[in-house]
Backbone:
């Protein structure tokens, strides 16, 4: 099979009119192009060098190893100094393109063409200057690197020829492939560990907020209870006139409002996982929040556009918590546009069994760094912000088995995508 490939290649060289007595001159890439290609193959070149020195015994035999990419461009070359100088005098340098059209019969182009190990010995070469040479090439294709292809080749003297070189090249290709796979797996593990660490930090922050809220509520509710009790006692006195009764009612009303604010703060800081859920029409739930926020939006020269299906969109959820999420997102969108603009609130049903909510603004957007942190507790870009609003939104949506994703570019606005499962 190897001989048939070489014979067919010889016929093509004759048809092209290549002169076997003239040393061919290869095309050479520009420096910038070569640098870009070497950068893409950086890991492969690094590992090939390591394993080749371990497996091919360069110091013992007069050989040169050559690494090419999938277009037969020489990216790296090392080995016996004497052979290196000889091939470099013939124009085989880094960046040289080792194609059949210019170089005649060669193992690099044949290995790439047929995707098989190839050897060409002595007079099998088309050009006579290679009559005392032995060449071996093995192709590689590393799928995990986006389908990167190329060859590993050995050039040596004919008297030093042995098929062991093909075995050695195959061993290097396989070793590099295993190492690339191992590196990819390690990268995934590092990413998973980083994500896990971030989740633990976020969880600890929520836990701290929950404890703070509980302590805060306890300290406030104690005096509130005492004040409410004394107000009730004063109301029951016989000498209390009508105006005093009115004042007492106002005081009790305001105390009740403070108590509700404390309760809401506890709920915001530590939303319950097992909330009572009922079937609600999200079209109405979101519509109510859009109407509620319209007046504030108009004062800020912001238009809220609500896009929803003609039919109802039912979902098992805690409608108050969904409203809380929408309140936070719309409020943030308004504040992101101090000079006015448009907010789009869109509701849709997906065929994948999810309900999709989109809140899009025309504000200043966020950098990648801010986008990664914006859902974390205590992270805020506002001068007087506490950094809890969006993190609570995330907690609520996750408690509904949903997801929040953010699309944002600096100067191009921000879009929050919420997905909630219908089942």
Residues:
């Amino acid at each position: 099979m190897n001989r048939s490939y070489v014979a067919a290649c010889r016929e093509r060289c004759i048809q092209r009119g290549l002169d076997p007595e003239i040393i061919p001159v290869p095309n050479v890439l520009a420096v910038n192009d070569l640098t870009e290609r070497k950068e893409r193959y950086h890991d492969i070149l690094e590992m090939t060098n390591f394993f080749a020195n371990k497996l091919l015994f360069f110091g013992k035999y007069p050989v040169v190893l050559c690494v090419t990419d999938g277009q037969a461009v020489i990216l790296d070359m090392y080995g016996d100094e004497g052979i290196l100088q000889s091939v470099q005098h013939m124009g085989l340098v880094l960046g040289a393109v080792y194609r059949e059209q210019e170089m005649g019969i060669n193992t690099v182009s044949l290995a790439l063409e047929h995707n098989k190990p190839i050897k060409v010995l002595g007079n099998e070469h088309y050009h006579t200057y290679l009559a005392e040479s032995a060449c071996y090439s093995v192709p590689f294709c590393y799928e995990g690197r986006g389908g990167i292809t190329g060859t590993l080749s050995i050039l040596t003297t004919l008297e030093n020829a042995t098929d062991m070189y093909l075995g050695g090249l195959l061993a290097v290709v396989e070793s590099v492939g295993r190492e690339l796979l191992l590196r990819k797996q390690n990268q995934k593990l590092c990413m998973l560990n980083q994500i896990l660490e971030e989740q633990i930090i976020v969880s600890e922050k929520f836990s701290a907020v929950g404890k703070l809220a509980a302590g805060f509520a306890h300290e406030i509710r104690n005096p509130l209870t005492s004040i409410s009790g004394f107000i009730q006692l004063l109301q029951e006195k016989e000498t209390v006139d009508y105006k005093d009764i009115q004042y007492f009612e106002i005081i009790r009303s305001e105390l009740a409002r403070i108590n509700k604010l404390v309760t809401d703060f506890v709920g915001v800081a530590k939303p319950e996982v097992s909330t009572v859920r009922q079937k609600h029409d999200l079209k109405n739930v979101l519509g109510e929040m859009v109407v509620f926020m319209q007046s504030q939006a108009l004062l800020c020269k912001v238009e809220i556009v609500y896009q929803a299906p003609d039919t109802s969109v039912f979902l098992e959820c805690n409608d108050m918590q969904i409203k809380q999420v929408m309140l936070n997102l719309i409020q943030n969108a308004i504040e992101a546009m101090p000079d006015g603009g448009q907010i789009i609130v869109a509701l849709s049903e997906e065929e994948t069994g999810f309900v999709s909510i989109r809140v899009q603004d025309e504000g200043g957007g966020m950098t990648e760094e801010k986008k990664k942190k914006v859902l974390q507790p205590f992270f805020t870009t506002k001068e007087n912000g506490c950094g809890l609003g969006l993190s609570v939104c995330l907690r609520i949506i996750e408690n509904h088995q949903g997801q929040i994703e953010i699309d944002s570019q600096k100067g191009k606005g921000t879009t929050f995508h919420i997905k909630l499962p219908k089942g």
